[in-house]
Amino acid sequence: MDLQGLSVICNGLGIALGDDDGNRIGYRKHKYCLDNLKDLLRFLRRDDQQNRDVFKEVCKWNIVSKDLIPIIEHCQEDLKVLVFLTMPVEPTSNDVLQQTEYLWELKSSITSSDIVTVIVSLLESPLENLESDVFTEDDWKLVQLVLTLFRNILAIQDISLHQKSGGTASQFLSRRDGFLELLFRENVMDLVLVITQYIGDHRSYLSHDNLLLLEIFHYTFMGQEPLLIANAYSKRKGAKVEEDTIDSVNSLKSIMEEEKDQKRLKVSRHPNFGGTFIRLTMISNMHGEKKEGGCSQMDCMLAVKKKGG
Is the pTM of this model over 0.85? Predict the structure, then answer.
C-alpha cells in the first residue's frame, strides 16, 4: 500500500470551517477534492480484503467524520466512498475485532450527523420519477447506492466478547437503536416500503434489489422487540396513533383470551366452531398519507369471527 500517496489524497479533500467558538459551520473543498475522492475510491477498491489496510488507515485518520460526512452534508457529493468504507467485515479476514470497532465508530459518527437527512433529499427526484413511470437507470443506481449504504450501517451489530466482558455492550446497543430511531424519524423506512412495492415488476430496475431490501428488513428487526419498533414508529405519528396501537394490541389480547376461554368450555353440541383471524396491516405512501383502499398503520385491524353450528 502506498501510505504516503493515501495520505496526500486524504489531506487534499478540504478543510472544515468553524466559528470563533470552534463549532463547525461549513466545509470548503480543495480544488482537486473530486479527483481525490475518485483516487480514494480506487484505493478502497484495490484494498486487500484479507488485511484491509486502506480501510484501517482511513478510519484511524478519522477521515469519515472530518471530511467525508461534511462533504456530503454541505456539498452533496458522491456516496460511493462511504459505501465502500461501511462494507461488512469479511469473517475470515485479519483483525476482525479492530475492523468491527472502526465500523462502530463510523456508525456513531453518521448517527450524530445530518447526513441521513441529506441522503433522503437526494432520493426525492428518483422517487418522483419512479411514481411517474419515468424511472431511469441513473435513478436506479442512486437508489441502489443509498439502500446499500443503509444496509451496511444497519448490519453493524456485532458485539465482541471483549466488549461484552468490558461492560460496554449497552453502549453499542444504544448506538444500534439510535441509528434505527434516526431512520424512522427521517422517514427512511417509509421510503423503503414504497420502493419495496416495485420489486415484483420484472420490467423494473428495482426487481434486481429484492435481496438488498430483504437484508435491510432483516437487520432492522434483528435483536428488536416488534412492539417496541411499532411504538417507536407511532411516536412520530402523534399521540392518537399511539393510542390506536395500544387499543389494537389490547383488542388482540382480549380476543386471544376469549379463544382460550372457549377452548376450556365443554359444550354438549357438536364441537365444530371456528377460530379468530386477526390481520394487522400497514399501508402508507412516502408522505405517510392514507392510501385509497387501505388504512393507516397499526390502526387498521380486521377481526373476523367465524362460528359454526
Answer: no
